[in-house]
Amino acid sequence: MEPAPSAEGSNAPITEGDRKDGIESLCKVFQIYGLPKNDHDATDAAHNAEELFKLAGNQSPERSNYILTSIVGEFRSGKLGQADCATAGAPVPTNAAESPDASSPDVPRNQ
């Protein structure tokens, strides 16, 4: 039995374990950098999460990249979001980091 080319192995269906580990790894990156706003940010998030994901799943670099790129695409398209990060145990902070005045919007400022 000869080994399959890495390109085929990287395109195999994503298992639930791969998906869970990938989402958790990406969400840890999103905690630091926020949800990706463009394709460049999405690519960077996948690369940053790859180091975390390899530790969790012992995947080949090609397979890790395929899984993370697929999952980050789901975040970019809106199929996954902040609630999925919270479920994975790595909630993404809201835009309080972007706007310091937005940290407590429900508190009236003039009383």
Largest sheet: none
Summarize the amount of helix as a percent range.
55-70%
Order of helices and strands: HHHHH
Rg over C-alpha atoms, rounded to the nearest angstrom:
17 Å
Structural class by secondary-structure content:
mainly alpha
Tell me the fraction of residues in β-strands, as a range.
under 5%
Describe this structure in words.
- The longest helix is centred in the middle third of the chain and has 19 residues.
- The protein is mostly helical and 111 residues long.
- Helix content is 59%, strand content 0%.
- The chain has a domain of 74 residues.
- The protein is globular.
Structure at a glance:
By secondary structure, the chain is mainly alpha-helical. It is 59% helix and 0% strand.
Give me the secondary-structure topology.
Elements: H1 6-10, H2 16-33, H3 39-57, H4 61-77, H5 82-87
Helix pairs in contact: 2-3, 2-4, 3-4
Features:
111 residues; mainly alpha; globular; disordered C terminus
